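Example record

Each entry pairs one chain with its bound ligand, nicotinamide-adenine-dinucleotide.
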Amino acid sequence: MSDGVYPTKLIKKEQKSSSTNRLSNNEIMQQTADSSGKVDDVPAKVSAANDSYGRRQDTPVCVITGAFSGIGLACAEKFLSQGYDVHSLDIQKCPVGHFHRCDVTKSSEVHAAVDAVLQTTGRIDALVSNAGIHRSGTILDTPEDVLDRVLDINVKGAFLTAQAVAPAMKAAGVGAIVFMGSDQCIVGKQNQLAYNISKGAIASMTRATALDLAGAGIRVNCVCPGSIDTPLFRDAMARYAGRVEVPLDAALEEEASAFPLGRVGQPGEVAELVYFLCSPAAGFITGGLQSIDGGYTCG
Ligand SMILES: NC(=O)c1ccc[n+]([C@@H]2O[C@H](COP(=O)([O-])OP(=O)(O)OC[C@H]3O[C@@H](n4cnc5c(N)ncnc54)[C@H](O)[C@@H]3O)[C@@H](O)[C@H]2O)c1
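Structure tokens for the complex follow.
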């Protein structure tokens, strides 16, 4: 299910794991459940080597979905460079971190991947729920199956992943979740109806989840990037250029000029914000939509 693929130059710390000391998500839930089955906030106590939250190693653990390319890959590189044990969940084999093949739309695959992470590490400190797709279309011409697919990956995938990691974070009494939103959490854009709906849902899920998990010590935020130069962006721009019949270079120039700072963003810039939101420096930030869009949504 998972295999380690750390590029050696990025390794900060060797992961400490013990095959004799493994807990699945369910086991952690059982460790913290009282006789009525109610789960409380008392961390699991599993061995003398645990830290004060009941976790089994010193190295913080980050789970990132959609880490094969673009923003997710940049996040994997950032967290790894900061000494995190990175676990990359994707349908394509990821170049950074421990890879877990996982379609985020499938509950069984998400839970299997998260359980595999927990069995190895006993902890998940940060979740970057990032996997997503983009499709063009208006209310007049978006087929039902396109709407279903976009909502499945962008919304249900984020829901399933957060639902899978939250029990372990709750048991530890600490954790940070970042949902990957978009400037379309905040504003509408033409000809991107399904995507716009999905990112509106991510904004709502961020607020609701932040309120539900605040008492468990888990912070939940949403990052809202404007256009970022990734494969998803390039594909969307190619579709746009084809539709309006302009050269791709001209379309890219037009897109850059739509941003007050006069350019699109880079994946690494988003990764810096995601990393900050997961760090103790952001300890009083939860439930927020954090823009990173060159000023696009402030007008
Ligand atoms: N690039 C932008 O301009 C931009 C702007 C705002 C928000 N975003 C958001 O950032 C996130 C990442 O996008 P990106 O631009 O880096 O795109 P990308 O295409 O480079 O990366 C998307 C990743 O998601 C993975 N993925 C797709 N379907 C999956 C599935 N069913 N299960 C698991 N993984 C799956 C892909 O394999 C890929 O690694 C998305 O949520 C996107 O909506 C992107």
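Residues 1-48 have pLDDT under 50 and may be disordered.
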